[in-house]
Structure formats: structure tokens, C-alpha cells
Amino acid sequence: MKMRNQTQFLEFLLLGFSEDPALQPLIFGLFLSMYLVTVSGNLLIVLAILSDPHLHTPMYFFLANLSLVDVCFTSTTVPKMLVNIPTQSRAISYAGCITQMFFFIWFVGLDDLLLTVMAYDRLVAICHPLNYTAIMTPRLCVQLVLVCWVLAALDSLVHSLLVLRLSFCTHVEIPHFFCETNHVIHRACSDTFLNDLMMYLAAVLLLGGPLAGILYSYSKIISSIRAISSAQGKYKAFSTCASHLSAISLFYGTSIGVYLSASAAPSSASTAAASVMYTVVTPMLNPFIYSLRNTDMKRALKRLLFRK
User: Fold this and answer.
1) Between 94-127 and 138-164, two packed helices, what is the crossing angle to 10 degrees?
2) From 1.20.1070.10, 3.40.50.300, 3.30.365.10, 3.40.50.1980, which CATH number describes the 2-306 domain?
3) What are phi and psi of 172, to 5 degrees?
């Protein structure tokens, strides 16, 4: 009962990047700028797709969902940090930490699953172009997105419930700028074997599984592109996948890099700095990746921004 009362009124301390007061304005300005670019860029992608009938296709439907998830993903962690810096407070309540953790895991899983669905969409478009509209029906697209949302939510719910069963001491410092699951779990006063086991299972099923699906899809796509006789046809087919490949490389490259660095130095503040790559930088760059090399998207954005 005593430990339960401690957990009920517990506060976590998010140590962030640096305790140097001179660096706080720089960190605040940098993260505020990145957050505003992320939100505005991804919302522009969503609005451009909604406003242009030419973009009402499966590929752009999935892209609109990915952009919306990226906005939610970044909004889960960055605003709390931006509030803490000027108020000079590092505290986050127990309920706030669990809530932040739940939404963070949810949106990370959604990003991963949506990138897999987008790989399947490119597989059908390139390997079965004549049957593309018959296979990728609006009903199937909605069902695929709903499955992504539900699976990611279930995974997040399991992890959150497992954290709720843990007991924490009264003074808990997290060397991060948000309640990252691994850091929170390993600051519990009770046994975390089940939590660690579920984290490994989730990594295999919800990270390894989708990655295997993406690799399989692109192996088939590459085989189909190599069978195209003309160089122009090969370039056109590959160009439809270039943005998606860039987004996949950025997401998985930064995620794997962060967790490798976390395994090497789990308590190091450098892990928090490295995690900025996939929590902030990746969602910020996705709108540029999908718009700069995409003629249809650039045309839709111009119509949205400059129409009379």
C-alpha cells in the first residue's frame, strides 16, 4: 500500500539535453522552429491531398494518413519540452508520463505500419498495373489504414498496462526529453522481466515483421523494373518509389541507430540527442521528401497556396 501511494503521487523528472542555462534559449528556439516546420509542412500535405481531386488515389490517401500521424507523433513529445524550458520545470506527472508513453508508442507503430502498407501499394502499382484499381479499392485502402491504427493501439495499450503494474520510488530521473519506454521501465523498483520480454516481442513482430514485408515488396518491385525494356519506363517506375524509399531509409536508419546507441550507453544523455533524429527530424523531413521530387504534389501545393 505504501508503494502504491508513492506511485500515485509520483512525478518524473525529464533531464533533457543540458542543464546549462545558457543553452536553454538555443534549445528552445531550435525545437520550436523544427516543430512549427513539421506541423505546417505535414498539414499542408494533408490539405493539398484533400483539396486536389487528382490526388484522391490510394498512394496519396496513405501519404495523408502518414502526414497526419507525423503531426501527432511530434506533438506527443515536443510541446511538453517547450513548456518545461521557459518554466524551468522538468517535472511530468505519473499520469502524464504514462499518457505520453501510450501515444508515443502508438504513433511510432503507426508510422512503421503505414510505411509497410505504402510499400504494398507500390508493389501492386508496379507489378500488377493493369489490376491496380481492381485490387486497391477505396474499401481495401480504408481497411488497411484501420488495421494499422488498431494494431498500433493494441501494442501501445499492452505496453502501457504493463508499465502501470510497476512500482516506482519517489525520486525518478529520466535522462531524456520525454518518457521513453525503456528509460521509464528500467527506473522501476519492481521486477521488469515481463516488460522487457514484451518489448523484445514487439520489436520482432511490429518492427521486424513490417521491415521483412517492405524488403519482400521491393525485391518484387526491383525484379519487375528490371524486366521493363525501355530506360524511360524503368526510370518512371523507379521514380514512383524514390520518395517512399527515402522515407523508409530515414525512419529505419534513425530508429536502429538510436537503439544501438541506447544498448551501448543506456544512461547516456547522447541517447536523447540521437533520438531527436526519428522523433523530430524524420517527421519534419517527410513533407520535403514527398513534395520536392513529386510533380503532382508540387502542383497541388501551388494551387493550395497561391489560388485566388
Assistant:
1) 150
2) 1.20.1070.10
3) -125, 115
pLDDT tens readout for residues 105-114: 999 999 999 9
Sign of CA dihedral 46, 50, 52, 57: positive
Q: How confident is the model at residue 203 (pLDDT cuts 50, 70, 90)?
A: confident
Using DSSP, state whether 173 is helix, strand or coil. strand
Instruction: Supply the DSSP string of 177-200, one letter for each residue.
Output: SS--HHHHHTTBSS--HHHHHHHH
- Please give the DSSP secondary-structure letter assigned to residue 168: B
The percent of residues in the chain predicted with pLDDT above 70, rounded, is: 90
Contacts 24+ apart (CB under 8 A), 210-216: 210/112, 210/113, 210/115, 210/116, 211/252, 213/116, 213/119, 213/120, 214/115, 214/116, 214/119, 214/248
Q: Are strands 11-14 and 172-174 parallel, antiparallel or unpaired?
A: parallel
User: CA–CA separation, 103 vs 223, rounded Å?
Assistant: 38
Give the pLDDT confidence of 245-287 residue by residue, as tens digits. 888 988 888 777 776 665 555 555 566 667 788 788 889 998 8
Q: pLDDT (tens digit, 9 = 90+) per residue, 96-144? A: 999 999 999 999 999 999 999 999 999 999 999 889 999 999 999 999 9
User: 241: which 3 cell numbers?
Assistant: 518509389
Instruction: Tell me which residue of 298, 246, 259, 299 sits closest to 66, measured CA to CA.
Output: 246
